[in-house]
Amino acid sequence: MPTRFRVVDAGRLTGRENIALDSALIEARLAGEIGDTLRFITFHPCALIGRHQDLAQELNLEACRERGVQTVRRMSGGGAIFMDEGQLGWALVCDRRVLGTATLPEVTEKICTAIAAGISKLGVNARFRPRNDIEIEGRKVSGTGGFFDGNILIFQGTVILDIDPAAMMAVLNVPQAKLEKRQLQDAGARVTSLRAELGEMPSLEAVKAALLEGLAEVLDIEAVPEELSEREKALAKEAHDEEIGTEEFVAEICNPAREAGVMVGHNGAKNLTAYLRVDGQQDSRIREVLFVGDVFITPTRALLDLESQLRGAELADVPAKVEAFFAEPAISMLGLTPADFSDAIADAAP
């Protein structure tokens, strides 16, 4: 029997309002106040960074101000993205057990396969590409990410209906290493849109219907339209006003290297940065460490727990401590290994 999913749509919101509503859905689902939910999301222009990213490094803040592009920090990991009226977002908030999978990589593959099947119903050949993209002929049309909170999963993604490469490149500081890896001159060459692939702009309703069809076929769900409850709206307002909508939250990580005594190191792929302070004899002990980057890790506080556990550790003991930390079955991540964290610290160390 298909699993029932309520389908909600709050209309076009600011980026911070949308992230606050994500928070509200998670809280309400954890409390058992709502059932498994699929939400469609539309945005006013904004630039969103991942939970563990450096605001100043990922975004051209002056360009964001000049263009009226709101800066937003997500609760989930991953990289920086530009959102405007040309993208459709979606989010699943559900009991992880309805998907019958255990780890974040497994969940990612299953959901992305369903979304790709839905996009393909519009007349293109969409495919899941690990670690978390959906592509058409090698060009990205959808990015995704998610995490677990206990047994509750939140998994989000976007579908690019149309794209403004100039706006995207103006507000995003795309790492040169990413461009060189794919031999691309700019990020605009890495992505495509449904308008470009179909030769015309599909309607939002057509894309929503196609996604629902793909999700129903692959995940065996039954979609039932509903309105947001007053409780969800109240929780979203509280989350926005007290945390997600504040400048303090968005700029929580912003140019950590500006502080005195901070050393900077990277893993081999340079998609993870460690900001390190040391003390002790011969500067051999970690005073504090902050990991920053395009990180998908669950549960969301796992990275904070790792940073806490490494405080006071001898640098020589870091590899063993990191391996032991990630041996915990409840922790999973995409695209990184425990050695990446040790390597970033070793690269920063004196």
Describe this structure in words.
This protein is α+β, with helices and mostly antiparallel strands and 350 residues long. It folds into 2 domains: 3-250, 2-Layer Sandwich (BirA Bifunctional Protein, domain 2), CATH 3.30.930.10; 256-348, 2-Layer Sandwich (Enolase-like, domain 1), CATH 3.30.390. 36% of the residues lie in helices and 28% in strands. It is built from 13 helices and 16 strands. The protein has helices at residues 15-30, 55-58, 61-67, 104-120, 165-171, 176-181, 194-198, 204-219, 230-244, 247-250, 302-310, 318-326, 338-348; strands spanning 3-13, 37-43, 46-49, 70-73, 81-83, 87-95, 126-129, 133-136, 139-149, 152-160, 221-225, 263-266, 272-279, 285-293, 296-298, 332-334. The strands form 4 sheets. Strands 7-8-9-10-6-2-1-11 form an 8-stranded mixed beta sheet, with helices on both faces. Helix 1 (15-30) packs across helix 9 (230-244), helix 4 (104-120) crosses helix 8 and helix 12 runs antiparallel to helix 13 (338-348). The longest helix is centred in the first third of the chain and has 17 residues, at 104-120. Mean pLDDT is 92; it is low at 178-185.
